[in-house]
Write a structure and sequence with these properties.
Shape: globular
Oligomer: single chain
Helix content: 40-55%
Radius of gyration: 17 Å
Strand order of the largest sheet: 1-6-5-4-2-3
Distance between the termini: 28 Å
Number of strands: 6
Length: about 210
């Protein structure tokens, strides 16, 4: 039991413990990815992410470049949206949005008998921006991103592909990895909105500070 109660001190001590445990495992993290891996472990208390986080070639560069140009950030859940550090994002001229609860999205999804996540990604594509996509729940969102990109209807700047679950999750992640789109993906069934936001914030803090 420690006498640490201030939020930033708690976070700093948590990261110290994480770093120490990684050292005891005899592991050495690539410097380029260390902040992302540690923040995901901090969010989940799950050290299996040491082995499952996939980074495409130049993923960090692509993400930081997009952030510096004020790219719009699109999430597939309001939970992921809530987890994004807005003040840091505003420093770079960016904004984060989620279309899942939009009335037009709900109506179209019901009419077409598809998921809101799919329709949300289509709405994002129509905005015309080269967006960053932060996906933490819906594999159908991830699949639609890949399809739209391959059809030339979307040009994602960077994608965090972290849906969680059992149906089409691993398949959707693999399709993203195979697509060549700059991405970070926790392989396997694990992920979630909290993980997606943690990955994004780690890159955001490196780019804009807090």
């Amino acid at each position: 039991m420690t006498d640490i109660y201030r939020p930033m001190e708690i976070e700093a001590e948590s990261f110290r413990i994480i770093s120490e445990e990684i050292r005891r495992m005899g592991r050495e993290l690539p410097a380029e990815y260390a902040s992302v891996i540690k923040r995901v472990i901090h969010t989940t208390a799950d050290f299996s992410y040491l082995d499952t986080l996939y980074f495409s070639e130049h993923a960090m560069e692509a993400a930081k470049r997009a952030l510096k140009t004020g790219s719009r950030v699109v999430t597939d859940t309001n939970m992921a949206l809530a987890g994004i550090h807005k003040s840091s994002l505003r420093k770079l001229g960016g904004e984060a949005v989620c279309y899942m609860a939009d009335r037009d999205v709900a109506k179209q999804a019901e009419r077409r008998q598809v998921t809101r996540a799919q329709v949300s990604m289509e709405k994002a594509a129509r905005q015309g921006d080269k967006c960053i996509y932060v996906i933490g729940n819906a594999p159908t969102a991830l699949l639609r991103i890949v399809d739209l990109a391959q059809e030339g209807k979307m040009c994602p700047a960077f994608v965090i592909g972290a849906p969680v679950g059992f149906v089409n999750v691993t398949e959707a992640k693999q399709r993203l990895i195979d697509s060549g789109i700059p991405c970070i993906v926790p392989r396997g069934r694990k992920g979630g909105s909290n993980v997606a936001a943690a990955i994004f914030n780690a890159i955001l803090y490196e780019t804009a500070g807090r």
